[in-house]
Amino acid sequence: MDKLLEVRNIKAQFVTDGNVVNAVDGVSFYLNPGEIIGVVGESGSGKSVTMMSLLQLISSPGRVAGGEVYLENGKDNLLSYPPNGEKMREVRGGKIGMIFQEPMTSLNPVLTVGYQIQETIMLHLGLDKEAARAKAVEMLKLVNIPDAESRFGYYAQQFSGGMRQRIMIAMALAAEPEILIADEATTALDVTTQAQLLEMMQDIAKKTGTSIIIVTHNLGIVAQYAERIYVMYSGHIMEHAGTKALFRRPEHPYTRGLLKAIPRLSDPKGKVLVPIDGLPPNPANRPPYCPFYPRCEYRKERCKEGIPPLRMTEEGHSIACFLSGEELEQREEELSHKLQKETAKKTIKPELCLDIRKVRKYFPVYKGLIRKKIGEVKAIEDITFQVRKGETLGIVGESGCGKTTLARCLMRVYRPDEGEVIFEGTDIARMKDSELISFRPKMQMIFQDPFSSLDPRQTAGSIVGESLKIHHLTKSQEEYEAKVDELFRLVGLSPELRERVPHEFSGGQRQRLGIARALASNPSLIVCDEPISALDVSIQAQIINLLEELQSRLGLTYLFIAHDLAVVKHISDRIMVMYLGRIVEFSDCLDLYEEPLHPYTKALLSAVPDANPDAGRERIPLKGEVPSILKRPAGCPFSDRCNLTEDRCRKETPQLKEVKPGHRVACFLYEQQEDA
Amino acid sequence: MGKYLLKRLGQTILVMFLVSILVFLLMSFIPGDPVYAMLGEDITPEEYQVAYEQLGLDKPLITRYAGWLGGVFQGDFGVSYQYHVEVEELIASRVTVTLYLAVLSTVIGYPIGILFGMLTAVYRGKKADSILTFIANLCNCLPQFWIGICLMYFLALKSGLLPSYGFTWPWEDFGMHMKQLIMPLICLSIGSIAGVTRQTRSSMLEVIRQDYVRTARSKGLREKKVILIHVMKNGLIPIITMLGNRLAFMVGGSMFVESVFQIPGMGSLFVKAIGGKDIPVVQACVLLTALVSCLAYIVTDLLYMLVDPRISLVESE
Amino acid sequence: METILEKARTAKERKQESRRKFVKALFRRKVVLFGAIGVLAFILIAVLAPLLAPYDPNKTDFFAALQSPSGAHLLGTDDLGRDVLSRIIYGSRVSLAVGVLAVAIACVAGTFLGMCAAYLGGWADAVIMRSCEALMSIPNTVLAMALIAVFGGGLRNLAIILGLSTVPGYVRMMRAEVLKIKGSDFVMAGKLQGSKNLRLMYKHILPNSLSPIIVMMTQQVGQTILVEAGLSFLGVGVSVPTASWGSMVSDGKAYLLTNPVFAITPGICVAILVICLNMFGDGIRDALDPRLRGDI
Predict the structure, then answer these.
(1) Is residue A184 within 8 Å of A101, Cβ to Cβ?
(2) Could you read off the pLDDT of B199-233 as tens digits, one per residue?
(3) Which residue of A67, A87, A353, C157 lies most exposed, with the fewest beta carbons within 10 A?
(4) What would the pLDDT profile of A342-382 be if each residue is shown by its tens digit?
(5) DSSP category for residue A634
(6) C-alpha angle with apex A464: A459 to A469, nearest 5 degrees?
(7) Which of B204, B260, B209, B197 is nearest to B232 (CA)?
(8) Cβ contacts (< 8 Å) between B210 and chain A: which residues?
(9) A176 in contact with B, Cβ within 8 Å
(10) C3 contacts chain A (CB < 8 A)
(11) Could you tell me which chains touch chain A, where touching means 3 or more CB pairs under 8 A?
(12) What φ, ψ does residue A62 adopt, rounded to 5°?
C-alpha cells in the first residue's frame, strides 16, 4: 500500500539565550490513506512541535533543523519548500488540515466563523464567494452545528468551547484535505463533549476517506480511536505498534512503565499503581544517550553508549531500546516480585467527619450603574451527604456542575446561603471569619494548579510552615525548623530545598509542597480539588500513591474532586456524581462503576476513553452539550439531554432516594419501579 | 448599546461634577485678593466694597459655588480679570484655534504612526524595525517646546523660509495660513507619530503571537493576507480607540506650542491666565479641557463598539 | 543550631545569586547599559555640581552678558551674564530631584490609595476611583499648572504637585493588580491556612503586586522630567534664579538669532537625560517581565 504521508528523521530546534535546544531529535513516522494514528507523549515530548514542523509552522525562535517529509509518494520534500512559499501554502489547509488545542483562542475574535471557513474554501478549492459560502454552511452542518445557516455570521465568542472546536474541525476539513492533524484537540473539553467530537471525527474520516493523526497525552483516547500508535518521549519516538499490540504487549520500558502507572477504568479496584520515578528530562540538557535512561528500571550499562535507534521486534512493532526482548522479560519478572508491596491499609471509622445538610449557594448577578441585582446563578442547591472519618469521598462531574463551589462552601471560602456544614460536630456554615480561624488548621485544601497556588515570592519552607507560625503550633524556632524538615521528608522532598522559591520546582514537586502545606497543621480533613489533573501522566501516580500512603499513616479524611473517572475509581471509597449544581447519584465506589443507575452517570462512564482497547464497552450517546448553569432546565437538571425524559422530569425535580443499600440516585425511573 | 451609552453619560456627568467642585475649591484657595486682581491695587475702599459684593465674596463658599455652577450651565463663566470681557467670548474664539490644530495634527500623525508601527512589527528584528523604533523612541523623549525652538531657529530665523510666529485663518490669508501652520503642526505631530508608532508596534506584536494567527497560517493563507486581515483588524482596535485619548492629550499639550509660536489659542490664554491669576478664565479652561477629554473618552467607547464585535456582544447579552 | 546557620547562609547565597541573575538579565542588551551609564553620569554631575561648574550659576555680570561660546565661557553667557555651562550643570539637580521625588510621592500615595480601593471596596472604592477619573480627565500639565497657581511653585511644591497629578495612574494599576492577586489561588491558600486579612495583604498580596508598579515608576521618571521642563519653560516651574533647563530655553528664546546655543543646549540635556532614563527603564521592565522583552 502506498503511504499517504512519510516523515523521515525530522528535527526541530529552539534557540533560547544563545543555547540550541533540540525539541525534536530525529522523528520518523508514516500514515496510510484512510488511517487514524495516534501520537502520544507527555508535555515537552515534542509531539506538537513535530506536527508544526512538518507544515513548517514553527515560528522564531524555533526552526526546522532537518528531515524529509513526503506527501502521496511525491518526489518533493515538503521541507525543501520555502516556509511561506506557494507550494507550502497549498499543502497547509489544502492537503493537511490542523486543529489546535485551545478552542478559546484559536479562532479569530473579530471575524465571523463563516468568513474564516469560507476563506479556506476560496483559497484551496477556487470556488467563488457564493459557492464557498454554501460549502461553508454545509461544513457547519457536517459538524452538527444547529442552525448552521444563521450561525454563519456569528463570532467565535458566541459559541461554547465544544462548539468552537467543532467549527475548527469544519474549517480544517473545509478544503477537503487528505490528512487531519488533531493536536490535543479535545484536551480542554469535558469528557462527554470529547467523546462526541472524537466520534464525529471518526465518522467523517470514514465517510470521506480522510486520514487522521491524533496527537494527545491521553492514552485512553489513542486506545479507543487510533489504529496505530507512536509513543514519544523527550523528542524521540520510543515505541511504535498497532493499538492492540501496544496495550497488550508493551515492550519499551517507558511504555511498560506508563501502563503500570495509570489507573484505568477497566482495572480492578485494588490495582497498585507503580509510578515512574524522577522527572522527564529538560530538553536543554538531555543526555547524549537514551533519554529515558535516568528513569528506566531496566537500564544496563550499555544503554549509555548512544541514542538507541528504532528497531523492529516483530511485524509492525518497533522500539528504541538497546535491550533484547529476553533481557526486558527477565527484568520484568524480577520487578514483578519487588512490586508486591501491599496496598496501604486504611481504617474507616463509623463516626462522621463531615455532615452536610441541604447546602445551597446562589451567586447574585448584578447589572447596570447602580448594580441592581437582576438574577442569580444557582451554583449548588440541596446538597446533603455525610463523610465518615478516614474515608475518601470522590466528587465527579463536568465543568459547571458546582463541585468547586461546593468545596469552597465546605472550606468556608464562601458562606453557604442555606444549610449546615457540620464539621466534627460543629456547624461552621454561619461562623464569622474570626471564629473560623480556630477551625482552619483542622480542614485543609490541595489545589488543582500547582503553579498558581504557591506564593511565588515566598520560599518553599515558609510556604509549608505558614500555618505553624499563624497558629503558634510549634513552641520554639528549633521545633519549627524540625517540623518543617519533617514535613518535607513526609512528602518525599529533601529539606535542603527549603530555601528555594516555587518556580525552581517542577509541577509534581510543587504539588508535593502543596500537600506538605496542607499537612502542616495536622488536619483531619483535606479537600483535594483536582490535585493531579494538571500533572503529567507519569507523575500522577506518584501523587496518587503519596496521598494514599498519607491517608493510611495519618488517618486523614479526603474529599477528592476530579473529572477523571478512572482516578476517582482508584482512590475513592464512595462517589458522588454532580450535574448542574445537584447531586444525581451517590454510591459505594464499586457499585457505581459496576451498576450505574442515573442516565447521566451511565453516559458519563461510557464517554470516558479507557486506556484498554480490549475492554468492550457500550457507548451511550449523549445529545447536546453541558448547558451553562445560567440555563438550567426546569425539573430534573438532566431532562433536556436524557433519552428517557418524560413529562414529569420536566416539571418536578427528583430527590435523592436510596434505591439499594449504600446507593442513592435522583431519578424518577427508580421511584416508579418502587411504586409498581 | 443605548443603555451602555446612557451609563457612560451618567458617569461623565458625575466626573464633570467632581471636576467642577475641584476647580472651584482650588481657585478659592488661590493666594491674593481677587478684587485687586481684577481692578488693580489703586482703588478706594468703597470701590473695593462694591466689587467685593459683586463677586459675592461675602457669601459662604457653597453659595458661591452654586451661583458659579448655575452660571456655567447658562454659558456664563464670569468676567475675565485681565481682559475685562466675558470669559465665554474670550474662549470661544480661541478654543477653535486649539481644536483646529489638535485635529489637524491627529489627522496627520495617526496614519503615519500606524504605518510606521505596522512596518516595524512586520519587519521585527530587521534593520527597518531597529531604525524606525529607535527614531520613535528618540522623538518620544524630545521636549515639545524645544522642538519648536529648534524649528523656529532653523526654518524661520536662520533661513527666513517661514514666519516665526503667529496664526491666521485660511479665509483671511491662505498662503500665510499655510506658512504659519507648518512649524506648529510638525511640533505637535512628531510626538504623536512617535507615540502611535510605539503603541501600534506593541499591539501588533501582541496579536502576531496569538493562536488564531497560527490558525490562519495553518490554513495556507498568504502572509500578506494573514497580516492584513487577521492581524491588522485585531491589532488596530486598541490604536483606533486611543484616538479620543490622543485628542484630549493634544489639547493639554497645546500650551507649549501656542506659547512658542504665539498662537492665540486656549493654551496660551490659559498660561497667561495662570500668570495673571485670572481665576474665571482658569476655571473655564480647566473645566473645558476636562469636558473635551470626557467627550473624547465617550467617542472612544463608541469607536470601540463599532470596530470590536466583542464589546457589543457582551452588552447585548 | 549549626544547620540553621548553614541554612541562613545558603539563603543569603541564593539571594545573591538571584540578584546576580537579575543584573545579568538587565544588562544583556547594550542599550540598557548605555542608559544606565548615562543616568549615572547625570547623577554624578548633579551631586558634584559645585566641583564641576566653572562659575557660580547665579552670579550675574552685566558686562559679560550674551557672550558667544569662548574659552572662558564654553557655552557662552546668558542675558544676565551668567555662565550657561554652570547653569546647565546645576540645572541637572532640579530635573533629577523633581523627577525622582515626584515619582516617589506618586508611587507611595498611589500604591496606598489603590490598595485601599481594592481592599475596602464599596464606598471607599467608589470615592477613590471616581476622584481618580476626575483628576485623569484634566490633562496632566493643565492640572499641574492650576495647582501651582494655587500653592505656588518652587522645587518642593513642584515635586509634590507633579507627583499628585500622576497619582491616578498608580491607583488604577495598583487596584487592578491587587484585585487580580486577591482572587488567585495562593491567596486563598493563605486564607485557608488561617491568615487574617492584614497578614494576607502584607505577606502575600503586596509583594506580588509591586513589580508592575516598579516598571511604571521607571517609565514615569523621564515623563515627569519632561513635564517639569515644560512648566519651567512656561515660567511656572522652580522660582528664579534657580537654574532649570526648561526656564533656560525660555530665557534663551529671545536671543535665538544671536546666541542659539543658549536656548538649544539645555533642551538637548533634557532629551539625553530622558532617553537614558527610558532606556534604563525599558531594561528594568524587560528583566522584571520577560514576556514583554523586545517590544517597546
Answers:
(1) yes
(2) 999 899 989 989 999 999 999 999 899 999 999 88
(3) A87
(4) 566 778 888 899 999 999 999 887 765 455 667 778 889 89
(5) S
(6) 100
(7) B204
(8) 105
(9) no
(10) yes
(11) B, C
(12) -95, 160
Burial of A533 from C-beta contacts in 10 A (0-12 / 13-18 / 19+)? middle
Read off the C-alpha cell for A379. Answer: 451554583
Q: Report pLDDT digits (tens) over B165-189.
A: 889 888 989 999 999 999 999 999 9
Q: Which residue of A has its CA nearest to C209?
A: A457
Query: What letter does residue B229 receive in the DSSP assignment?
Result: I
What's residue B1's pLDDT? 57
**What is the C-alpha to C-alpha distance for residues C267 and B144, in angstroms, rounded to an integer?**
10
Contact C61, C81 (CB under 8 A): yes
Rg (chain C; Cα; Å): 23
Which ipTM did the prediction report?
Answer: 0.86
Neighbouring subunits of B (3+ Cβ pairs under 8 A): A, C
- Render pLDDT for B226-242 as a digit per residue (tens, 0 to 9): 999 999 888 888 887 77
Phi-psi region of A263 (alpha: psi -120 to 50; beta: other; left: phi over 0): beta
Look up residue C279 and give its three cell numbers.
Answer: 532606556
Residues in chain A within 8 Å Cβ distance of C188: 413, 447, 453
Which residues, at least 6 apart from B258, have a Cβ–Cβ distance to it below 8 Å? B98, B184, B264, B265, B266, B267, B268, B271
- Cβ distance B286 to C146 less than 8 Å, yes or no, reads yes
Backbone torsions φ then ψ of A12, nearest 5 degrees: -135, 140
Q: How many helices (H) and strands (E) does chain B have?
A: 15, 0
Q: Buried (b) or exposed (e) across A335-368, using 16+ Cβ within 10 A?
A: eeeeeeeeeeebeeeeebbbbbbebbbbeeeeee
> Using the beta-carbon criterion (under 8 Å), do B212 and A171 form an inter-chain contact?
no
Whether residue A23 has pLDDT greater than 70: yes
DSSP reduced 3-state for A627: coil
The pLDDT of residue B27 is: 81
Return the DSSP state at B59: S
How close C173 gets to chain A, by Cα (Å)? 20
Nearest chain A CA: its distance from C102 CA (Å): 28
**pTM: predicted TM-score of the whole model, two decimal places:** 0.85
d(CA B290, CA C140) in angstroms, rounded, equals: 11
Work out the average pLDDT over A270-280: 83
- DSSP structural state of residue C259: -
Considering only alpha carbons, which residue of chain B is nearest residue A171?
A: B219
Residue C290 pLDDT class (50, 70, 90 cuts):
low
The predicted structure's pLDDT at residue C294? 40
Window 80-99 of B, Cβ < 8 Å to C: none
Flag whether residue C122 sits within 8 Å of chain A, measured between CB atoms. Answer: no
CA distance B2 to chain A (A): 12
> Best of C9, C185, C206 to disrupt the A interface by mutation (most A CBs within 10 Å)?
C185
Q: Which residue's C-alpha cell is 545558603?
A: C10
CA distance A597 to chain B (A): 38
Write the residue in C139, C263, C275 that is nearest to B138 by C-beta.
Answer: C275
Q: Does A218 touch chain B (CB under 8 A)?
A: no
N- to C-terminal Cα distance for chain B?
10
Query: Between helices C206-233 and C140-151, what is the axis angle to 10°?
Result: 70
For residue A392, list its beta bridge partners: A558
Inspect the interface and report whether the beta carbons of C186 and A470 lie closer than 8 Å: no
As a whole number of angstroms, the distance between CA B118 and CA A278 comes to 47
What's at A265, amino acid-wise? L
Strand arrangement, sheet containing A19-31? A19-31, A5-16, A62-71
Centre a 10 Å sphere on the Cβ of residue C12 and count the other Cβ atoms it contains: 11
pLDDT at C295 over 50: no
Distance between CA A589 and CA A269 in Å, rounded? Answer: 9
